[in-house]
Amino acid sequence: MNRPQIRFDDGASYETYMGVWSQSVGDAFLHWLAPAPGWRWADVGCGNAAFTEMLVQRCAPAEVQGIDPAEAQIEFARTRLPAGAPAAFHVGDAQALPWVDARFDAAVMALVIFFVPDPPKAVAEMVRVTRPGGSVSAYAWDVLGGGLPYAAMMDELKAMGIALPAAPSEAASRLETMRSLWQDAGLVDVETRTIEVQRSFENFERYWEIAQTGPRVVARLAQMGEDERARLRDGLRRRLPAVDAQGRLTYGASANAIKGRVPS
Fold first, then answer.
1. Is the pLDDT of residue 6 over 80?
2. Is residue 171 within 8 Å of 254, Cβ to Cβ?
3. Per-residue pLDDT tens digits for 170-214
4. pTM for the model
5. Domain layout of the chain by residue ranges
């Protein structure tokens, strides 16, 4: 039986939904990765180029090539960076990268490995296109450990008996699974870490507004009547931390990260 797809068809909406979270975890990841300037990068599963933009702004790359299967995300990515930025974007498959062997100094997969149907194949492709001695890395929300930025929404929907589409490879977000993937691909000097991040919303209403736009929930919420939606809203409020004295809501998420090196 085929799984319902989790689709990313609106780059701008996805930026509001995930952009702040992506930047926070990407900052911590790049600090940990500590890449050298002048690298040539493959950004595998680049989405709307949130991480690509960080690479260009902070890592002085010689080149970044981004690839993603969602045409709408790639269209948004192509408008994101200024003219002359050393980045290009392509519609394509992480499991069959369109580049020759040893093309890059680094291959990275940011917040996407659990969406890939065959993670071992994708990691093998990242290794293939990275030069000997180059870096292969990834980070992903800790899906099974409750680390998703909108886990409270998912948990409340589940408590209401509402099934949501699951990512095809959720287990690939676990640290032990990632480590096995990297080691099985022949990578060396493999290291892992967990990154904790937080995001503040002006108030609960703003959180509720944004949480409803998630690609896993938007279609199901559109089918809800007013009473069912009100039950979801009230249950979600009970699951979340209390707002502060200014009415702000601060909520946390966690991601697992890994890095390794192609043998010389």
1. no
2. no
3. 999 999 999 999 999 999 999 999 999 999 999 999 999 999 998
4. 0.91
5. 11-148+166-200+253-261
Q: Give the sheet arrangement for strand 130-141, strand by strand.
A: 87-91, 63-68, 40-44, 104-110, 130-141, 249-261, 188-201
| 212-244 confidence digits (pLDDT tens) | 998 889 889 999 999 999 999 999 999 999 999
Pair of tokens at residue 55:
């690479």
DSSP-assigned states of every residue in 28-91: HHHHHH-PPTT-EEEEET-TTSHHHHHHHHHH--SEEEEEES-HHHHHHHHHHSPTT-SEEEEE
**pLDDT-based confidence at 3, cuts 50/70/90?**
very low
> Alpha-carbon distance 67 to 98, whole Å?
9
Spatial distance between the Cα atoms of 253 and 149, rounded to a whole number of angstroms: 5
Contact, 42 vs 97, CB < 8 A? yes
Q: CB of 81 within 8 A of CB of 87? A: yes
- Considering only the top CATH level, what class is 11-148+166-200+253-261? alpha beta
133: left (phi over 0), alpha (psi -120 to 50) or beta: left
pLDDT in tens, 71-84: 999 999 999 999 99
Residue written as token pair 């493999």: 190
